[in-house]
Automatic annotation (TrEMBL):
Membership in a protein family: Belongs to the small heat shock protein (HSP20) family.
Taxonomic placement: Bacteria, Bacillati, Bacillota, Clostridia, Lachnospirales
Start and end residues of each SHSP domain: 25-141
Pfam families per UniProt: HSP20
Protein's UniProt name: Hsp20/alpha crystallin family protein
Signal peptide: none
InterPro entries according to UniProt: A-crystallin/Hsp20_dom (IPR002068), HSP20-like_chaperone (IPR008978), Small_HSP (IPR031107)
Amino acid sequence: MLMPSIFGENFMDDFFGVPERTYTKSAQNTLMKTDVVENKDGFDVSIDLPGFKKEDVKGEVKDGYLIITASTNQNKDEKNKDGKYIRKERYSGTCQRSFYVGDDITQNDIKAKFEDGVLKLEIPKKEAKPEVKEAKYISIA
């Protein structure tokens, strides 16, 4: 039986008083959300990368796939006036997405820009080259 959507994903956890893991859930739900828009010349791709810097993001084209990788290593230490830690938080992680762009697209064809935690890519369309069928004949002596 399907549950009504008012209960959300964690109905049983809420019911039994299990604390919600907001950081884990929000990170899973927000990292690398992607919008792809097709236009006459190609595709505009927007990838959300909150908390990442431009130097944390890498893109490559390999075997017809565009691979976007983002890595970070954050350390937020807070000390009181005596130098003792009040709170210490660390986060290290890598996330990656890949998109099939075709064998004819090279990394020089793709234009990329990173602003305000959003990676914007312009991927052109390339016409598929028609395969030329070569007739093969048996030589008759």
